[in-house]
Design brief:
alpha/beta, about 190 residues
């Protein structure tokens, strides 16, 4: 079975590589910007994830295809990948000292079947100064990440508390992934890598 990770994300590749499960990483050309946000973050991430899967299905009709979309959400607003350094700064300033949610929609497509799941993780940021935000930006380069931040490594300094799946904040929630793969007969427990 040819397994495709339909994502450019190095974080998703890294998480999937924790298992002895050979896969090919292929980016989907689905136009995320064409989908309007209608103030339902769960529906939104699934529409995006599903769109990516459906597009790749046309190219790889016999493959098992996993796609995902992750957003940061607070006060009816999406914090996606920042357009530039200034927007990233504004994101972090807005999120500082507050709770927000990270939503990931996962789609697993195989032949004529589509399985989907949504994961939500709540994250509380520390209070951070403008100087700390600039230092964070200069050092960690998070422009390609939803919300303009990363939770792994020293990037975790920004977070005070996390409720839910840590790997969801990285972009690929492990329990949701396990649940989806079970539906096509793949047990992640049998693919643990030492």
């Amino acid at each position: 079975m040819h397994f495709i990770l339909g994502s450019q994300s190095p974080r998703r590749r890294e998480i999937l590589s924790y298992f002895n499960l050979p896969f090919t990483q292929v980016a989907s050309s689905f136009d995320e910007d064409a989908i309007p946000f209608k103030n339902n973050p769960m529906e939104y991430v699934l529409i995006l994830s599903r769109g990516k899967a459906e597009l790749l299905r046309k190219q790889y009709p016999d493959a098992l295809i996993l796609t995902a979309d992750t957003i940061v959400y607070k006060d009816e607003r999406i914090f996606g990948k920042p357009r530039d350094e200034q927007e990233a700064f504004e994101y972090l300033k807005t999120l500082a000292g507050h709770w927000h949610s990270v939503f990931t929609g996962l789609s697993l497509s195989y032949k004529d079947q589509l399985f989907e799941q949504i994961e939500e993780t709540k994250v509380l940021f520390n209070e951070i100064t403008d100087q700390q935000i600039r230092l964070y930006q200069q050092t960690l380069h998070c422009a390609d990440k939803a919300g303009g931040y990363m939770i792994q490594g020293p990037g975790g300094l920004i977070a005070k508390r996390i409720e839910g799946c840590y790997y969801n904040v990285m972009g690929l929630p492990l329990n949701a992934l396990e649940n989806l793969l079970k539906k096509v007969g793949i047990d992640l427990w049998k693919h643990l890598k030492g």
